[in-house]
Structure formats: C-alpha cells, structure tokens
Amino acid sequence: MTIFKLFLLFSFLSFSFSEETPNHHAFPRPLILEYAELEEEEVSLRCRSWRFAGEANNLSPWKTVPKECAEHVKEYMNGKGYVYDLEIANKEAGEFAKSVKLKEDGLDAWVFDIDETLLSNLPYYAAHGYGFEVFDHAKFDDWVEKGVTPAIEASLKLYEDILNLGYKVILLTGRSESHRAVTVDNLINAGFRDWHQLILRSSDDKGKLAVIYKSEKRSEMEKEGFRILGNSGDQWSDLLGSSVSVRSFKLPNPMYFIA
Amino acid sequence: MTIFKLFLLFSFLSFSFSEETPNHHAFPRPLILEYAELEEEEVSLRCRSWRFAGEANNLSPWKTVPKECAEHVKEYMNGKGYVYDLEIANKEAGEFAKSVKLKEDGLDAWVFDIDETLLSNLPYYAAHGYGFEVFDHAKFDDWVEKGVTPAIEASLKLYEDILNLGYKVILLTGRSESHRAVTVDNLINAGFRDWHQLILRSSDDKGKLAVIYKSEKRSEMEKEGFRILGNSGDQWSDLLGSSVSVRSFKLPNPMYFIA
C-alpha cells in the first residue's frame, strides 16, 4: 500500500492535508519498512481522530466503523486504552457524586444506561467485527436473551458508590420490555442491585429516536419529583435532549452509534 | 522512576487498576529499558485518557494540565494528532453545513468562537508550558494586543465554506471589548472576512461564567430572528447552556478549561 493510496483511503476522514503530511518523494527509496511504519502511524492517528470526534459528539450518525479503522477499534477495545477511558469517566462521575450534598427526601437520582455503560457486550461485538459489521438486530437479541453480558468493572464500582452515597438509581435502557426478565437476571448476576426503577422501551416507545425516548422518560422522572444529578451513558443520545442531568458522563464506545 | 511510582503519579487519574496493569514482579529483572518503555506507554495512555475525558466533557473544571501530562500535551499540540483532530471536527462541520437547505431570508447563522477555534494561541502557550503554567491574564492580554495570532487552517477553510454557503457568521468571544480593534485587525490579517457581527464581553458581562454569557448572547441572536444552525468552539462552555445550535462542533483543546 503506498502513501498515495493511504491518502485516498483517508479522504473520508480528512479534507485538507497539512504540510506536515509526509510526501513520499521526500524519502529515499525503497525504504519499504519505513513506509509501512509511517502508514501504520498515519492510520493510527487518523483513526484515533475519528474516535475522538465520536467521543466529542462531532460525528454525523454512522452505521459501521470505517473499514480503515476496523483493526484500530479492535485493538483499542481489547487494550488498556478502553479500560483507562472507562476508568477516568467513572472516576470523574464518582468525584462529582461525592461532591454533591444530597437532600434527605430520597429524590436525588442518578440515571444509568445499561449496554456499554453497566454491562459490556464486548464478547458479542468481538464475534461481529467490533462494529465493522452492520448491526444485526435478531442476532443481538439472541445474545441479550442469553443473559450472560458481563459487568464493566469501573462502572460497577461507581454504581456501588452511588448507591452508598444515597442516590436513587434509575436504569434507562433502549432494550425492549420483552427483555425485562433476562435483563434483571443478567444485572443481578453481574453484581448490580437495589435500583429504584428499570425502564425499558414499551410498545409505545417503538420507533422513537433514543434521544426522544430517553428525554421523555427523564421528564417523567422530574415530574415524579426526582432531581437528576448524574447520568452515565455511552451514547450522546443517552445524555442530551431535554430534562438533562446536572452533570453527564460519556463512556467510550467506538463500536456503534445510536441517534 | 519505578512502575510503583508511576502508579502513585496516576492516582489522580485512576481509581481502580485493572488486572491488565503490568505488575513489575511479573517481569524478569533488570530489564531497565523495558521498564522505561512500559512506563512511557502507561503515561501516554493515561494522559490520552485524560485528554479524551476532556473532549467528552467528563472532567470537572481544571486549572492546569496535570504535571504528568505536560510533556504529552506538548507533543500532542506540536504533532499531527492536534492537526488531524482539528481537521476532522471542521470537516464534519462542513458536511453538516452543506447538508442544510438554507432559507433565503439571511437568518441562518453559524456561531464561531475565536481563540483556539479560528485563531491559534499556540505560540503563546508554547512559551508558557502548553497549559502547565497557571493562566496569567495580564501576560495573555499583552499577547492578544500584539494582534499576531495565526489562523487555524482547517477552521479558516470551514469559515470560507460557511460564508460561501450563505450562512451569516457571528463571532462570539470571551475577549473583552477593550480588545475589539486589535481583534478585528488580527482576524482580517489571518484571512477572516465578512462576519455579520463580532460580539465581545462588555463591562456588563464581566464576571459571568462563559456558558452564561454565551447563552445570553445566543438568546439575543434568536430574538433577532436568527436560526443558529452550527456552533464551533474549543470549550464546552462555547456550546452548551441555552439557545444551543442544531449541531455543535467541539474543537480539541487540552491546554485550558473555561467554565
């Protein structure tokens, strides 16, 4: 693969190349090994920028991980980068949670999303290209019904801290009501306990954008008197919209996008 | 520096270490070189996570770049990572801008912040530790008054595209009214032109949080009839609050935080 081809590959990511971009005429030939290293570094940097852009909510809706970044996302998800990103997001959430003086009326709430927030579907996505394959609803439903999705350790620790501080925990997930029983079992087996409410998509919520569905549900919480202080989710559609929390915490997820 | 010391250093970043964290007892000794490499990789990963967390709006307000990440931030700001992150954010903004069918009443607006959004104060920060030194208002004012802040190339390209598409450009900056003349000259010399309005902090706005000041100004734009379709800024306080834009674009900035 030449540097030139790499330029083409990344036309989807980049619309103007700085003068710093290596020009292959500037290198003596045939330094094949050096080319390969340069290319690998370029791919890594461009894909990291793509991932960054996602975490900063700069990307338009996307259906699959860009082909050029499939390997990068796989490595990230299986490496320390993902673990450390989960840790710092949850640590910041925990520090904020501790910093708030709760009222004693039991109405201070923390909202958690479930998939890729409390539970990790990494085993499923590892078998399906880490987001490079188009999402298959039926296959994913089969996986959910197994009820074996493991906890995200850093999120489980935050969850315990939040409970112990006296927050009411409300779980708000895009999973359908039909998965309620297996979701409850899965959460308990993964170590989660004592949530105040578990909200799943009812038949009325079918077809709604996640950001609308979740905003509506948060609005209902507020009508019940809850003060939503924190909200943890791996999608911006978990966190934005209306009735948003005082602080929200975006957990990393470069594998899929939910609007 | 031992791995153990590294752990201590990063206690501010990490509250739970996964089992993947290298245990120095697991390595044969005295592989000093390998230790050094491992440490460097750890620092790099932890600091990248810190930077990611900032871009995802997960961090509490901070005053300086963490000591351990000073070198990481310097390398990032001077390397391709920063350039590529600027490029992808501006590219996504441009694609969104093009995708909107504008009304022909001249009321479709795009809001731009100035510092670290259109103009780059990197020369100033390079001389002041890339955010590792505590911000010095007087020194920064002196720098601003020189009027030599260069354009961010990818943002200048977006700016031109936005103008050519027919948007009204409104510049909304935290700079004070006292810097108006030099800011206008600086912008023009850097290649920016034809903005509809340049809003700076008046004496009435002194002491307001940026997120409040900017929300108020956007609210005034809406009262004048403008539809704020896009908003580009390097701080979340440029983008959040009320009267927010349809889509906003967070440009990277690991050097400072404005609430």
Automatic annotation (TrEMBL), chains A, B:
Claim: Signal is one of the keywords in the record: yes
Transmembrane domains' residue ranges: none
Endpoints of the signal sequence: 1-18
Similarity field: Belongs to the APS1/VSP family.
PANTHER family named in the record: ACID PHOSPHATASE-LIKE PROTEIN (PTHR31284)
NCBIfam families from the UniProt entry: plant-AP
Role according to the record: May function as somatic storage protein during early seedling development.
Protein name: Acid phosphatase
Originating organism: Medicago truncatula (Barrel medic)
